[in-house]
Amino acid sequence: MTYLPVTSARPEPLRVGLIGAGWMGSFHAKSLAQRIPDASLAAIADPALESAQPLAAELGVAHVTADPGDLFADPEIDAVVIAAPARFHAQLAIAAARAGKHVFCEKPASLDLDEFARVEQAVGEGGIHWQVGFNRRYAADFLAARRDVADGVVGTPQLLRSLTRDPGTGSIRNADRVPHGTIFVETLIHDFDALNWFNSGAEPVSVYVAADALVEPELRGMGFIDTAVVTIRYENGAIAAAEANYSALYGYDVRGEVFGSRGMVQAGRATETAALRFGAKGLSAETPRLNIELFADAYTAELADFVGQVRAKRDGGEAPDHGVPLTPGLADARRALAVARACIESVESGEAVRVAAILGG
Ligand SMILES: NC(=O)c1ccc[n+]([C@@H]2O[C@H](COP(=O)([O-])OP(=O)(O)OC[C@H]3O[C@@H](n4cnc5c(N)ncnc54)[C@H](O)[C@@H]3O)[C@@H](O)[C@H]2O)c1
């Protein structure tokens, strides 16, 4: 048998290092190693080597380290995916940018705006592509809704809605150690971005929060919040509601909606598929239980976009064009974080809070 020689027309894959090999990092690792042909997973860094080593072994990754600094110093690495806990995101992104590595950073980009300003500065000075993990934008139904808004199908947005109900058991593990404001900065930040993106071009003006500990009422006195409704007023007059709860016993429920002068568009549904079971006792359906089930395609698409954006920047080619603004960058991360920080102030004061005041305006 004689095989013919083949000259590959495909450019070298983007060599990506993973920082943080936990729940989310493991999914991203598999996307980079197996689902995105234009990328390769070159190394994994995690101080918990007991997480990093088995993942590297499973995916055939040759380099593992406890120190993310090793990835920044490695000339063979083009970009990093940061999936460490939120409190480390900003410092890791700054170090990566200073080393000239492109950054995909899981949400939230930072826990506070002053720290985030340092990220923005480092990204600007490093000349790198920086992207944040607002994956909902990449879910097919959310993207279709955004395209409808852009095409004028719903007319002028008047009411917007976004909700996140995390699956739970009715009791949150280590709830007493969850930092104050987590529901806004880590959970609802997805909803704030979805709303800002749906109502694109209009700045959020003020927020008002009603929040409580209804899942873990005994932690109310410590300031723990597991249930919140946020009202956001936008400069174009639109009013939005975002809500979250940490214990939806029926599954992982994420939805969005834009209601306007010409109609309404909805994204997301509580059932896992469109299949409905009809029986003697009525209707039933499966519901998704895990984020990596509900958003498997979106998580992969956001990283594929990141890889495409970096390659375009590095190789001078065409950046991916999605028809509507999609790739979430520094301004999107700042806007969503400002809303989240304003929510924390609203909880503390019991008053509506101007977002511009949070941004120092
Ligand atoms: N976009 C989404 O829908 C989504 C869903 C889940 C988690 N997340 C985000 O992903 C990030 C990680 O969450 P997770 O659920 O995977 O947490 P996790 O605890 O499962 O994993 C975090 C990993 O980071 C490692 N780590 C700790 N300090 C580190 C450091 N300084 N440098 C490198 N690695 C470090 C830990 O050892 C652990 O393996 C969080 O920011 C979270 O908000 C996003």
TrEMBL record:
Give the record's keywords alphabetically.
NAD, Oxidoreductase
* Domain Gfo/Idh/MocA-like oxidoreductase N-terminal positions: 14-133
What Pfam families does this protein's entry cite?
GFO_IDH_MocA, GFO_IDH_MocA_C3
Instruction: Identify the InterPro entries for this entry.
Output: Gfo/Idh/MocA-like_OxRdtase_N, GFO_IDH_MocA-like_dom, NAD(P)-bd_dom_sf
The UniProt record lists the keyword Ion transport: no
The UniProt entry, under SUPFAM superfamilies, shows: Glyceraldehyde-3-phosphate dehydrogenase-like, C-terminal domain, NAD(P)-binding Rossmann-fold domains
Domain spans labelled GFO/IDH/MocA-like oxidoreductase: 142-265
Asked if NAD is a keyword of the record, the answer is yes
The family assignment reads: Belongs to the Gfo/Idh/MocA family.
Q: What is this protein called?
A: Gfo/Idh/MocA family oxidoreductase
